[in-house]
Amino acid sequence: MLNYECECGNTTKLFATGDRDEQGREYVEIEDDDRLAIVIGERSVLFRCSFCGYTYRLDQI
Ligand SMILES: [Zn+2]
Predict the structure, then answer these.
(1) Which domain holds residue 6?
(2) How far apart are the CA of 26 and the centre of ligand 1, in A?
(3) Which residues surround ligand 1, an ion (CB under 5 A)?
């Protein structure tokens, strides 16, 4: 579904689980959470590579 790829070569996928919430939105999970940590903040989401520690930030629109 989605692919995360860090500069260091670490890659992992987000895949759809097949489960949906009451509004029809499907849940996704990280394929391997030893490779990638997602931290939800108040105004941004952080994607932190567990290999090299590099962090990407996605601000809330
Ligand atoms: Zn990395």
Answers:
(1) 2-59
(2) 28
(3) 6, 8, 10, 49, 51-52, 54
Residue 61: pLDDT band (50, 70, 90) is confident
Q: With 90 as the cut, is the pLDDT of residue 46 above it?
A: yes
Q: Which residues contact 10 (CB under 8 A, 6 or more apart)?
A: 35, 36, 49, 50, 51, 52
Give the pTM.
Answer: 0.79
